[in-house]
Write a structure and sequence with these properties.
The complex is a heterodimer of chains A (411) and B (113). Chain A is an all-alpha fold and 411 residues long. Chain A has a domain of 88 residues. The longest helix of chain A has 23 residues. Helices cover 28% and strands 35% of the residues of chain B. Chain B contains three helices and six strands; from the N terminus they run E-H-E-E-E-E-H-H-E. In chain B, strands 2-5-1-6 form a four-stranded antiparallel sheet. In chain B, strands 3-4 form a two-stranded antiparallel sheet. The chains are: A mainly alpha (411), B alpha+beta (113). At the A-B interface, helix 4 of A face helix 1 and strand 2 of B.
């Protein structure tokens, strides 16, 4: 909704667009309390936002300037309603999302600010949620977003998706935002749930939109779409029927979505054109290796380790290093895994990441060191961000206290 | 370049919603064309067909205007054109003409003190 309203009001009136969306949601909470939730809530919200927009445009006909391309068409009753109606049409809105995403990737903004802005405006992430996604501090994110909005407000119009050079320059930032969005849905930091399938779907939908655009169908976009499909394929097993989180080693692989796996593999093949090797290619390749293993024991860990070695160079981050260490522990044993974890550069950034302590706990558990393991899991539990994570980690703490023996299939 | 007002008459206010929608789409298309060619000065507004008429020194107020539908001014816009002939040419694109209506083309009088 913000995207289509910004197209109408103009990017310099972004705050107005956000207000109108806010108003629509407020009205929804008031009206739905008495009349109940309508059959099609999003259509209701859209219509409300549209009517509110018409009110604003009429009331402030001459007081404000709106989107330059629309200019006077919004001022006259001859054209106001039909134009707004046209812009609220579903196929127009789809394009607006793309336009808005690219607009957020303003060249004067550093990449992190672009992504934060996109997540905030388009996906409705709160500052706290963005801070967790970046493993960063709230205050830093807050400042980043405020500054970014100012820069955006200073641009003359929304990004024109038809200009090739600009499009290609901005594409990497858009990729990164979609990646982070997917990640947040797949394994996020939200206080409600570790897994939010809607976010994954949203990311996949936007990635698909990118692929539809002639300039967007590049190898990295295919790779990104591939990795999303391959990860999403595991979602039905990742969260079981009771709403519990299952690690890759525990999942009932028969519940993996085979169609998504197939789609992912096809997209991975399509991503092999050209010479660019991006982090998305590598991650997709890793995901494809997991996807090919019918059972956890069948996983080709050698290949995964070598892929992680490549990934760590392409995208050096403590989390990638952690995942690499876990892969090494699978290939060379838990002691080696612990060594690798200990040598992670920037390891202190992981201090608040529950799965850092959980990984340590896991490896100590496999070595039979139940007390050490229990300590780590308890630290992890203290850092858990939602009930799902808490249940998962509590379960591990229990296993340590009972001194359960380690067996491949139960970890 | 001079400015001209178009006064539209013969707007069909009894049309069904579907017909109105089609008509509005034609108007939007015409406006966009005028805008693209740089003719559009003031987009004006459509006007409701009835209102009041205030007349004379006594300021008598009557309901009105009462005239045949084809005579009531249904709306206006202001355009910019080289001269009256040019303004007339431009007006021929107006959708109201297809519907049997008319466009009155009046130059804006520049008043100098």
């Amino acid at each position: 909704m913000v995207a289509v309203l910004t197209r109408i009001f103009g990017v310099h009136n972004l705050a107005l667009a956000e207000d109108v969306v806010q108003d629509a949601f407020c009205r929804a909470t008031e009206v739905w309390k008495y009349r109940g939730v309508p059959e099609n809530p999003s259509a209701w919200l859209m219509t409300t936002a549209k009517n509110r927009a018409l009110d604003v445009l009429r009331r402030e006909r001459t007081a404000r300037t709106y989107a330059p391309e629309l200019g006077r068409l919004l001022q006259s009753e001859w054209t106001l309603a039909p134009i707004v109606e046209e812009l609220f049409a579903p196929n127009e809105i789809k394009d607006d999302l793309l336009r808005m995403m690219f607009s957020c990737c303003h060249p004067r903004l550093p990449e992190e600010a672009q992504v934060a802005l996109m997540l905030h405006i388009l996906c409705g992430f709160s500052v706290g949620e963005i801070a967790s996604a970046f493993v960063s501090r709230r205050a830093a994110i807050e400042k980043r977003i405020t500054r970014a909005k100012k820069v955006l407000a200073g641009s003359k119009n929304l990004f024109d998706v038809a200009v090739a050079g600009d499009f290609s320059r901005r594409l990497p930032a858009v990729h990164r935002a979609l990646y982070l969005l997917f990640n947040e849905g797949y394994h996020g930091a939200s206080p409600e749930s570790a897994v939010r399938v809607e976010l994954c779907r949203e990311a996949m939908r936007l990635a698909a939109k990118l692929l539809e655009h002639p300039l967007g169908a590049t190898a990295p976009t295919y790779a990104l779409a591939a990795l999303m499909c391959l990860h999403a394929a595991r979602l039905p097993a990742r969260v079981d029927a009771s709403g519990n989180l299952n690690s890759l080693f525990d999942q009932d692989r028969s519940r993996w979505d085979q169609e998504l796996v197939d789609d992912g593999m096809k997209l991975l093949e399509l991503s092999a054109k050209g010479t660019a090797l991006t982090e998305y290619h590598v991650e997709a390749a890793i995901a494809s290796i997991h996807a090919r293993a019918c059972r956890a024991e069948d996983t080709d860990w050698d290949s995964i380790v070598s892929l992680y070695n490549t990934l760590v160079e392409l995208r050096p981050s403590p989390i990638v290093a952690l995942n690499r260490a876990i892969a090494i522990s699978q290939k060379e044993g838990p002691e080696r895994g612990l060594e690798e974890i200990a040598s992670i550069a920037d390891g202190d950034r992981l201090a608040n990441y529950p799965f850092y302590s959980a990984a340590l706990g896991e490896l100590e558990f496999r070595l039979g060191r139940h007390e050490e393991a229990g300590k780590h899991f308890r630290s992890a539990l203290a850092l858990a961000r939602n009930p799902m994570e808490r249940r998962f980690l509590n379960h591990r703490v229990g296993a340590c206290e009972r001194k359960d023996p380690y067996s491949q299939s139960q970890s | 370049m001079s400015e001209f007002t178009y006064l539209f008459r013969g707007r069909d206010t009894t049309a069904s919603p579907e017909q109105m929608q089609k008509t509005m789409e034609k108007w939007v298309a015409w406006f966009k064309e005028l805008g693209a060619k740089g003719h559009l000065k003031d987009t004006g507004h459509p006007l409701e067909h009835t209102g009041k008429v205030v007349k004379g020194k006594q300021k008598i107020v009557n309901d009105g205007p009462y005239a045949e539908a084809k005579d009531v001014v249904g709306g206006y816009i202001v355009i910019e054109a080289k001269d009256l002939l040019h303004a007339v040419e431009i007006s021929k694109g107006c959708p109201i003409l297809e519907a049997g209506g008319s466009v009155e083309v009046r130059p804006i009088q520049t008043m100098n003190m």
